[in-house]
Amino acid sequence: RVAGRELVRVPAGEFEATKLEVNQAWTSRAPNNAYPSGARTLTIWYSPQTKRAVKFSSRGSAGAHFETDFDLEAYKLN
Q1: CB neighbours of 38 closer than 8 A, spacing ≥ 6?
Q2: What phi and psi values does residue 64 have, to the nearest 5 degrees?
Q3: Within the chain, how many helices (H) and strands (E) appear?
Q4: Cα 21 from Cα 29, distance rounded (Å)
Q5: From first to last of its 78 residues, what are the pLDDT tens digits of the chain?
Q6: Are 3 and 20 in contact, with CB atoms under 8 Å apart?
Q7: How far is CA 60 from CA 23, 35, 37, 50, in A?
Q8: Global pTM?
């Protein structure tokens, strides 16, 4: 879903970005629950100025406990 527009500051600079949220959920079908069920929210900030995503955030929930963040360090528009 489109969650709106935000001004995002990352090491590559400050950008006006569209914030997108993707919610995922999965259920284990492995024998003996070898792989746990879980869910996560992936948030992406896309900047038309750079023509790419400038920031990613992934947060696990419902049994999938993890956090991952990526920020754009630098870019060169050709």
Answers
A1: 25, 26, 60, 61, 62, 63, 64
A2: -105, 90
A3: 0, 5
A4: 26
A5: 999 999 999 999 999 999 999 998 877 776 776 667 778 899 999 999 999 999 999 988 755 567 888 899 998 777
A6: yes
A7: 10, 15, 11, 28
A8: 0.79
